[in-house]
Write a structure and sequence with these properties.
This protein is α/β, with parallel strands linked by helices. It contains five helices and five strands, in the order ββααβαβαβα.
């Protein structure tokens, strides 16, 4: 596994496992950045990093991620040389995360990053009494097989 990216301590680490998501990674990264660079998120001091775990992709996902590092310096990339599955990729990302809070998203773009700032705010308001906040995906767009 390789890791590229900055070594600063952000408030939020967004962990995203991806495999063969060449059409989804660029729009998803832009959505995450827009959500966490929004006025409310900035006012709340939500510094962040994005950790994308390329879980053995055989398409151009890795190349696209590498190219996006110039535009998004808060993007960190982990690479599994062979696919270990979504759970293993999340574990790698969470283990590498520097943030106080960790948000996980699927790499297919079906989770809306716009909800992350509100979820982090809920955790902060919990003052240590709240350990997890979760969203519920409604209206999935999976194939009949899934």
């Amino acid at each position: 596994m390789t890791d590229t990216g900055p070594e600063t301590a952000p408030l939020v680490s967004v962990v995203v496992p991806v495999k063969n998501e060449e059409g989804n990674v660029a729009p998803l990264i832009a959505e995450i950045a827009n959500a966490l660079e929004s006025e409310p998120a900035r006012e709340a001091g939500m510094s962040f990093e994005m950790i994308f775990i390329d879980d053995g992709s055989t398409d151009s996902t890795g190349l696209i991620l590498a190219n996006l590092r110039e535009t998004y310096p808060m993007l960190r990339i982990l690479r599994h040389p062979a696919s270990g599955g979504q759970s293993a990729a999340i574990r790698s990302g969470v283990s590498a995360a520097h943030g106080t809070y960790i948000a996980t998203l699927d790499g297919d773009g079906q989770n809306n990053p716009a909800f992350i700032p509100a979820m982090i705010t809920l955790l902060q308001r919990g003052e240590g009494r709240v350990g997890i906040v979760q969203g519920q995906r409604v209206g999935r767009k999976d194939t009949a097989f899934k």
